[in-house]
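Subgroup meeting minutes
Present: P.N., E.W., G.H.
Scribe: E.W.

1. P.N. recapped why we're keeping a running log of single-chain structure predictions: easier to compare across weeks, and new members can see raw inputs and outputs side by side.
2. G.H. added today's entry (368 aa).
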Amino acid sequence: MKFNIKTTDGNARAAELIINKKHLNTPAFMTIGTYGSVKSLDTVDLKRCNVDIILSNAFHLMLRPGTDIIQKHGGLHEYMNWDGLILTDSGGYQVFSLGQDVMVNKEGAVFRSPFNGDKVTMTPEISIDVQSKLNTDIMMIFDECIKYPSDITSTKRSMELSLTWAERSRTSNYDNKTLFGIVQGGMYPELREKSRQELISMNFDGYAIGGLSVGEPQELMREIIDENAPRLPLNKPRYVMGIGKPLDIAYAVRSGVDMFDCVIPTRNARNGQLFTSQGIKRIRNAKYQDDMSPIDKNCDCYTCQNYSISYIKHLDRCNEILAARLMTIHNVYFYQNLMTQLRTAIVNSSLDELIGQLENDFKEVKND
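Output recorded in log:
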């Protein structure tokens, strides 16, 4: 892995990440392909939307279809016909999302498969082994994600467990693949600091800020990012997990974050919520029934170049699958274009001006 910072604007960085001869310009947004597929899109659609990296999930792929089947294809890239970069989440958040049905101890997590009820064990060693067999480009350590709110005692125990698992994840990386550590510590600055410092001493290839988007207030989330991102190593990529609102991304870029992922672009598209240069449009609003214009007149995506918002509203109302595909193409393209705008603004030292524009575009009163 190589990470080359090209330009800075305050804490913000425009950089290039090179892994396995594949190039990624950062700041970058990773489109979610949990099961080895971005819902409703194929890889041609993704390339058309300028996607260079997707995020898949080791937890889900381990359960379905299983690593043995994916290995028979030669790895996840071949399985899904994708020649871009892939980052695989370790499964820590998915284990957390199972709630009380999980038993966590120092060895790992034991739970029932949400698909067939089988007993499943996930440990740092198993998670890294699964990700290695998937032949992913970027692996994540196995960690524990804690709910919000949690008291400091529970959070400290969880953070220390995650540090133990981080070291075990690191020593289990038998293929020496690119591996990112994940800073935990809940909403407590002193715990975040300890997690951050100990992970830095383990010398991971990159660092993520985890444990966010679990119900905490938006301002608290931004404060944690602002405090932690600039204190991570300057010469390694920084990744905030699970945030996806345009303004949250822009603020985090200003704090020095390089990588993002979230289900918002694709999930919201399927629910008729579209991101545009004029804010958010909700296609189920009656006023779009006879609107002959595209979703966004300023957008060059395939959808906006070929279809009216009236037609897409009709498809959505009829529950036609094509509606989900066209709206997803638009939102995915919007997010990739947003990242291009952020990178350009860093190069031009105009990031604050762009953020001001985004604040105006995405004020709640402008969303219809």
